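Continuing the batch. This is chain 6 of the set; chains 1 through 5 are on the previous pages. Same settings as before, nothing changed between runs. Recording input and output for traceability.
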Amino acid sequence: MTSLIFHNPKCGTSRNTLAIMKASGENPEVIEYLKTPPSRDYLVELLAKMQISPRDMLRSKEPINDELGLDNPELSDDQIIDAMMAHPILINRPIVVTNKGAALCRPSERVFELLENPVSSFTKEDGEVVYHGK
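Output for chain 6:
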């Protein structure tokens, strides 16, 4: 299986995650999910693979989150997914899928656990050095 990343090039965490993947010898399929959002079925599949709830995937920092009242605890999972489908910016990123599983890679070093041959250390854009296995 080819690894893939749901990526937003404007996001530092997403850029760092992609760079860790490439430094580790991966050549992932890059899906800019704001241009090409996943289907509803695939989004549900990703949630199941990651074993997280739609609310856990929700990017609550976005202004549209407040406009839509998505912090309301009475909203169902389907309502949260509907909002993410209508406004893909609400899908938190980066999401990485490899042979080893799938994860929302926040922080970016979470990607280490999904890689076959992760680099032992990586220097992020901000100069922070992260280590695999520490």
